[in-house]
Design brief:
By secondary structure, the protein is α/β, with parallel strands linked by helices. The protein folds into three domains: 28-67 and 106-164 and 286-357, 3-Layer(bba) Sandwich (FAD/NAD(P)-binding domain), CATH 3.50.50.60; 177-283, FAD/NAD(P)-binding domain (3-Layer(bba) Sandwich), CATH 3.50.50.60; 367-469, FAD/NAD-linked reductase, C-terminal dimerisation domain (Enolase-like, domain 1), CATH 3.30.390. Helices cover 29% and strands 23% of the residues. The protein contains 13 helices and 24 strands. Strands 1, 2, 3, 4, 5, 6 and 19 form a seven-stranded mixed β-sheet that branches. It has a five-stranded parallel β-sheet with strand order 8-15-9-10-11. A hairpin with a 2-residue loop joins β4 and β5 (144-147). α3 packs parallel to α6. The longest helix has 24 residues, at 103-126. The chain is globular, with a radius of gyration of 24 Å. It starts with 27 loop residues before the first strand and ends in a 9-residue tail after the last helix. The structure holds 1,4-dihydronicotinamide adenine dinucleotide (NAI). Residues 168, 196-202, 204, 219-222, 227, 253-254, 282-285, 330-331, 361-364 line the site of 1,4-dihydronicotinamide adenine dinucleotide.
């Protein structure tokens, strides 16, 4: 079968008007380069604080998250969940099946979601007294950005240029070998896919493709899937994926990938040959920081990432960096937090720095993964010891109703604080809010145990895990 791609959506129906040239001659308090999660959050907060702000974006406000990342992929994942629900209806006594997956209709649904959010965001930006400038910006000094022949002067510059999908040397990207950018626009479900990389993007796309009926093989270089997560979560995901008939090859590295008319021949370093219609390359995202004058302005970089202190100040006074170009977690909500932080710092509000350790993470594959704080190994490294409790969703009524399995693992420091929470199971991403408060507010099991969790909810699993850790398990063993 042929796989085909639609052109990326290039119609920006509600493009915002640029400011008149004369306005660009006025000095700004803040000039922001990049209108993705970090950049637009910084612009909105700066404007709220009465700062004079210019936001420069070469494509569409919203950036990767809105147009090529979080939002469209989660729409795909929701369509995948609908397919699974239809396929597995008989398990609940509802006889149903999946007739076909109409990718054109899936894309229409996806585009509708993205389009509405984009329009809403454009409305927010244009009503917020932000000078929005479309064009490719270049840093020309510590206080200036040039865009389309104009020079914007700012007391502060904020670099928010985001990230791109990395590939590997020697791979020829096209309609057989692609990154998530192109995979989001497939107009047909491929029969078979090899996913290179078992990190966040790899497992999310593997989950979607499998739910849509493709044969899926994941090739991961490290010994386990989602290597940044708690090892027991990786094991549970592997088990769940095997049950879904997703093939997983860990400790496996790509030797070559050769596209042809019908698909792609993938050869691993151990000599294994895999044949698929499509190879999805999901080996990480790199920072977009080249060729924009950063080096010439003296802004220090390390392997492409802009180096900053904890207050997100670069090596050049007055110049900040936010979001994916700052080493650490590459998450939209981290970008939002960075953007807000910098705006408040510039306005003199002395905000508290954003600490990666307290940032919640959710991976939206089926089953979902949600975590915050330290893994057991990290806690042992830091404190010399740690106690854990692993609550099995087998004892959680709502999880049984949903026919999902999984767990909630708590990591306790020697002083009693719960310093890490690691969850896996269908829909468990929804539970991250409470988990984040417990870890962020340095709660103990004894603080959480008396909190009443509604029955029957999956949220109850968090309550039950803390009851057990406090020595008084209810629907669990001690
Ligand atoms: P990643 O860093 O999460 O995973 C890449 C994986 O590829 C790693 O496990 C790595 O060991 C593996 N790998 C690297 N080279 C390889 C090779 N030659 N052969 C086989 N495996 C190889 O990066 P990913 O998944 O591309 O995601 C990029 C970023 O986007 C991440 O920081 C992620 O957090 C973010 N993201 C977050 C989402 C979420 O929060 N739900 C969704 C999608 C992306």
């Amino acid at each position: 079968m042929e796989s085909s791609l639609t052109k990326p959506d290039s119609t920006d129906l509600t493009a915002m008007p640029d400011i008149p040239t004369s306005a660009s001659e006025q000095p700004y308090d803040v000039v922001i380069l990049g209108g993705g999660s970090g950049g637009y959050a910084c612009a909105l907060r700066s404007a709220q604080l009465g700062l004079k702000v210019a936001l420069v974006e070469k494509d569409k406000v919203g950036g990767t998250c809105l147009h090529r990342g979080c939002i469209p992929t989660k729409a795909l994942l929701h369509a995948a969940e609908v397919a699974d629900t239809a396929r597995e209806g008989a398990k609940f006594g509802v006889n149903s099946s999946v007739e076909s997956i109409d990718m054109e209709a899936v894309l229409k649904y996806q585009d509708g979601v993205v389009g509405r959010l984009h329009k809403g965001l454009q409305g927010l930006v244009s009503s917020a007294a932000i000078d929005y400038i479309t064009g490719v910006g270049h840093v020309t000094s510590a206080t200036t950005v040039s865009v389309g022949g104009r020079v914007l002067t700012g007391r502060h510059l904020v670099l928010a240029t985001g990230s791109y999908a990395r590939t590997l040397p020697g791979l020829e990207l096209g309609d057989r070998i692609m990154t998530s950018d192109q995979a989001l626009r497939l107009t047909r479900v491929p029969e078979s896919v090899v996913v290179l990389g078992g990190g966040v993007i790899g497992v999310e796309f593997a989950s979607v493709f499998r739910s849509f009926g493709a044969a899926v093989t994941i090739v991961e270089a490290l010994p386990r899937l989602v290597p940044a997560e708690e090892p027991s979560v990786s094991t549970a995901l592997l088990r769940a994926f095997r049950k879904r008939k997703i093939t997983v090859k860990t400790d496996a590295r790509l030797a070559s990938a050769t596209p042809d008319d019908k698909g792609v021949e993938v050869v691993l370093e151990d000599g294994t040959a895999l044949r698929a219609e499509l190879l999805l390359v999901a080996v990480g995202r790199g920072p977009v920081t080249d060729d924009m004058g950063f080096d010439e302005a003296g802004i220090a970089r390390d392997r492409g990432f802009v180096t900053t202190d904890e207050r997100l100040r670069t090596s050049v006074p007055g110049v900040y960096a936010v979001g994916d170009i700052v080493p650490g977690l590459q998450l939209a909500h981290r970008g939002f937090a960075h953007g807000i932080f910098v705006a408040e710092d510039i306005a003199g509000l002395a905000p508290s720095p954003v600490i990666d350790e307290f940032i919640p993470k959710v991976t939206y594959c089926d089953p979902e993964i949600a975590s915050v704080g330290l893994t057991e190994a990290q806690a042992r490294d830091r404190f010399g010891d740690a106690t854990t409790y692993d609550y099995n969703l087998g004892g959680n009524g709502k999880s049984q109703i949903l026919a999902t399995s999984g767990s909630v693992k708590l990591v306790k420091a020697p002083d009693g604080r719960v310093v890490g929470i690691h969850m896996i199971g269908a829909r468990m991403g929804e539970q991250i809010g409470e988990a984040q408060l417990i870890v962020g507010w340095e709660g103990t099991a004894e603080d959480v145990a008396p909190m009443i969790h509604a029955h029957p909810t999956q949220n109850e699993a968090l309550g039950e895990a803390h009851l057990a850790l406090a020595g008084k398990p209810l629907h669990a063993h001690a």
